[in-house]
Amino acid sequence: MKIGILTYHHVNNDGAILQTLGHLYTLKDLFPEAQVEVIDYRSLNMEISEWILALKSFLPWKGGGFSKTRKLLYLKSFVNKQLSLSSSSITTNDWNKASAFIEKQNYDAIIVGSDEVWKVLNKKQSRKFPNIYWLPLPLKAAKIGSAASANKSDESLIKQEAIQHQMRTFLDDFKRIAVRDQFTYDLVCKNVTDTSKVYQVPDPTFGMDFNTEVRQKLIKLGVDFNKKVVALSFSSNPVYFSKIAETLRTYADQHNIQLVAIGQQNKFAHLDITGHLNPLEWASCYKHFNFCITDRFHSAIFSIKNIIPFLAIELSSKYDGSYKGKVVDLLTKCGMMNAHRFVSKDSIDIINVMNELEKSHNPDAMKKVVSDFKVSFRAHLKESILSVK
Fold this sequence. Notes:
The strands form two sheets. Strands 3-2-1-4-5-6-7 form a seven-stranded parallel beta sheet, with helices on both faces. It has a six-stranded parallel beta sheet with strand order 10-9-8-11-12-13, with helices on both faces. The protein is 42% helix and 17% strand. By secondary structure, the chain is α/β, with parallel strands linked by helices. The protein has helices spanning 14-30, 44-56, 65-82, 95-104, 155-158, 161-171, 182-190, 215-221, 239-254, 279-285, 297-305, 325-334, 350-359, 363-386; strands at residues 2-6, 35-42, 85-91, 109-112, 142-148, 176-179, 198-200, 228-233, 257-261, 271-272, 291-294, 310-315, 340-343. Helix 7 links the parallel strand 6 (176-179) and strand 7.
């Protein structure tokens, strides 16, 4: 059996690469006799956009140019060397060409997801709808949505009758549709004929354990384990985040705490190791920190998977409607909304919040979430592939 995974495997984001590995490793573990590979389709728009963003970061008022470029190059190299990519590849915005390319690979099943592969946008440098992630043309392979998300779609677009008709046409051709969040579940159910094939699953990173040894590398990079170490996985560029980071730095300097930036440039960190860890090392580094503060979905996930206390912060202006995004969706399902704060001009009392979360930290509850999500995701993949055989 030949299985292809179609997702955002090539982007400048550790979490996106790790969710790809979550699918890849879990499928290989469950079906060792199958040929499982990542379909090496790359969006031309996104390839160009990422390099433009990296170059713009060298502008004086942006900052972090070398760090961001190093990370981009590091991740591109990791993807090319470490993922089980299809033997041929294509980079295009044309979904007709991409469909023809995929059909030539002769897959028995195509897994679409995870990540925001079904986000409906029409911006200049976006993956404009419709795109290849909807598998808009008929294929011999069975189509399976797996932890797919439409998070942060343009809600004015998804309300248009013509787009809803297209979504229904595409989604009806899927054998099973597992989505990652409530927003996507509601959207798909409104735009598919058979809602019985639609259900929710955790992120693929819960499907496998990531246990790369990284402590010695962290020490070589300058992490001081003689101190309390707090991981910062958020940028200091947004003004309200900057206030939080500045408060943290003042407190850290007074209390023998080291602040370590682990994914984004943060000018208030004592140490920035962004771009020095490959995705597997990044996934495993969390267990060596005492606390993590992040605005990122997968940093929240790997804090949970590594059983450390954490705080997820998001700008209050990020979501306009009633749906508050994938981080809130995740933490609601985990019963961990106490570890989330929306931030506005009235900034949070970050020190008190940290102290409260450290006191209420419940490792056993986290371990149960990780175990339950692992079982759930693996059962979904197993049943999906067996339904094709």
